[in-house]
Every structure is written in structure tokens, then in C-alpha cells.
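Note on ligand handling. Small-molecule inputs were canonicalized before submission; formal charges were left as drawn, and no protonation-state enumeration was performed. Where a ligand contained multiple stereocentres, the stereochemistry in the source SMILES was retained. For NAP, this procedure yielded the string shown in the input block below.
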Amino acid sequence: MGKALIIGCGGVGSVTAHKCCQNSDVFGEIMIASRTKAKCDALRDKLAGGRTKVSSAKVDADNVRELAALINEFKPDAVINLALPYQDLSVMEACLETKTHYIDTANYEPPDNAKFEYKWQWDYRERFEKAGITALLGCGFDPGVTGVFSAYAQKHYFDEIHEIDILDANAGDHGYPFATNFNPEINIREVTADGSFWENGRWVHTRPMEIKRVYDFPQIGPRDMYLLHHEELESLALNIKGIRRIRFFMTFGQSYLTHLKCLENVGMTSIEPIEFNGAQIVPLQFLKAVLPDPASLGPRTVGKTNIGCIFKGVKDGKEKTYYVYNVCDHQQCYREVGSQAISYTTGVPAMIGAMLVMNGAWRKPGVFNVEEFDPDPFMDALNNWGLPWTEDFSPALVD
Ligand SMILES: NC(=O)c1ccc[n+]([C@@H]2O[C@H](COP(=O)([O-])OP(=O)(O)OC[C@H]3O[C@@H](n4cnc5c(N)ncnc54)[C@H](OP(=O)(O)O)[C@@H]3O)[C@@H](O)[C@H]2O)c1
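Structure output:
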């Protein structure tokens, strides 16, 4: 039995903590540490009484010294970083200092520049390798399971994959006119950015929401979806040999888009600080403060998510297509762990990634994306831990 330190006690952190407690053969002890200790204490009390010992702590994850001191005191086998992308580098530094394995679900993003890419974290490869510890990057659903699906398709069904379309549909209805399903600041930075996709060895850039398609999702039905830039495109373009095109589409309802456009038009999504009543505030951070907390959407969200990948390529000289996806029900997640499906589909893979690093199946010194490991134990674990997947060998394709 091992020990994990979970940093961040929001929607995703809460799901991962629940799943670690369900998996007490691997997670004998967990500590939940975050900025607001009261949230960690409440979660600790909720999870107390099972086979996994749960404790809580306050930590500023921007502060490497504070993090390292906490890691040295608790001595976890792995740190699961479920705070915000801004904290990735400080948590990685603390893991290096204490020689502790590292897992996260979102790549580093500087607070003052709405731009995410793996470069900052890939720059740690040599230091993690020399320290003999593993950093597993982007181990949520997308990125995360989408990379595992890609490695699985590559291993079992294709000689060469030429095209990947990642489709992320959320048909959940929370009843609010406007709310985001995970951290509003991170979510809005992502969807208001320019889009891009990878084609023939280069990035093709688009304006935000410029490319729209309609797809008939299994168990959900037809939905409008829009092309976005997404972080796994960057690593899959390197790790899937022979790839010619990768695109990422996410569904948005008309009400969400209309509200977002209006907020953008009046400057509420800006990350440039402004003067307000004698203080400097960032409009997007103020907006986050007035929007519903994603962690509170669980009881009121009904409907399903469907996230998966469609592959086109060749096997034994013949063209082949393959679709693999997971369907997750918001209310079922809420009944199990008290969270909606977006937090669930991220928090479960984070627990699985930590389990595979801790039990050695996915442990090697260095910094890695999920598709660089054997996908089979992860695919089995998805079926065992609440995210079963379905295969389709003649799917409808996206034009
Ligand atoms: N790969 C995927 O599929 C995927 C999908 C969704 C989300 N994500 C990622 O998952 C992560 C968590 O998302 P979420 O929806 O759970 O966000 P959230 O609800 O906002 O939770 C973030 C948590 O981090 C804590 N935190 C923030 N800054 C901190 C600091 N400096 N020190 C210590 N704790 C700090 C927050 O503390 P307070 O409680 O004090 O605010 C909060 O508990 C994000 O990085 C997000 O991008 C990945």
C-alpha cells in the first residue's frame, strides 16, 4: 500500500480523493492539501472511516519551499497535482527536490499569458531522469484518456494512424443560463483562444470557433461542435508515428456561446488587470468569482458526456477506421462521488495514472505523456474504475 499527496481540492481533486479511497489496496494513505484548508478538512471528514487513511493540510502550491516541506513531512510515493495549470512548475520543482513522482492533468500556463504548451514541462526531462523519478503529464480525460486511446489504437489496430479526430461532447444541463464545468478562468481562457489543428507537419491556425461541425454522438444525439486548440494535439503529433492530421472538437450549446460572446464584447473575459475602486483586478478572475462554482453543479446537472477519438489509418495495406469513446452520466457520477461528470472523467484517470506510477507499471525516470506508456493496463483500469469504453469499427466520420 502506498501514499499519495493530492494538491488542489476542487471538483477534480475531490473525485480523485474519492477514487483513491475506493482503491485502498493501492492508496493506503492520502493527504489532501490546498489553499483553502476548510475544503480539505470537509473532504477528509466525508471520506474518513474507510480503509484509506485520509489527512488534510494547507499549502500554497506556488511556493516550492512550502510544498517541499509538506512532501518531506508526509513522505508520499507520488504527488497528484490537481490545482491549476499555473502551479505545475512549482509542484514539479518540489517533486524534484524531494525525489517524488509527479502526476497532473493540465499543462503549464503562465498566469499573465493565455497560452499553454508542453515546452515548459518537457524542459524538465533531463532533471527528472537524473533524479530517477517519473512525471506523468496530462493524465485527465482530454488530455489523458484520449492519449491512451491513441496508444491503444496504434498498438492493437493500425500499422499507421494517419488522422485522429478527438470529439468531446457534454450534453449535461445544469439549469443555469451560463456556467462552466471546470474552473471558469481556465475554461474561458481555453475556449476564447484561437483554434488550431495539426496537418502535414505544421499547425493550421483558425479564429476562435471558426470551424463548426455537427456530429451524431452515441447515446447523446446530434450536437454542434467547434474546433479548438487542445494540449494533447502537441504531444500526439510527436508520439503517433506517421500522423498526418489531428483535430479536437468540443460541443457548445447556443446559450453558452451567446453569453460568452456578450461577456467577451464587454471585456469581462480579459486577463489584463484594470483599476477598480482603487484596486487592481483581472476581469476574468472577477467573472470567476460571480459564476457558479463548478464543484456545486453536481446535484443539478443531468445528461451525459461522450468523449472519444476517431482514427483513420492502414492495417495490413488496407484502409481502416476505428472509434473508441466513453459515455458518462452526470447523475450517476453525482450519486457515486458527489460530482458532475466533467470532474469525474478527469479525476478517475488521475487516480489511475497515479496507481500505475506507484505500482511500477508506468514508472520510468523522466517526463512523459500518457501515450508513451503501454496503454493496456490503463484501458483495463478504465473499465474497472468507472469509465468503461465502447468500440465502433465503422463509425461516421467528421468531414
Ligand atoms: N485533462 C482534463 O481532462 C481536464 C479536465 C478538466 C480540468 N482539468 C484540470 O484539472 C485541474 C483542476 O480543475 P478543477 O475543475 O478541479 O478546478 P477548481 O475546482 O478550481 O479547483 C482547483 C483547486 O486548486 C486550488 N488552488 C488554486 N491555486 C492554488 C494554490 N496556489 N495553492 C494551493 N491550491 C491552489 C484551489 O483552491 P481554492 O479552493 O482555495 O480555490 C482549488 O481547490 C485544472 O488544472 C484543470 O485545468 C483537466
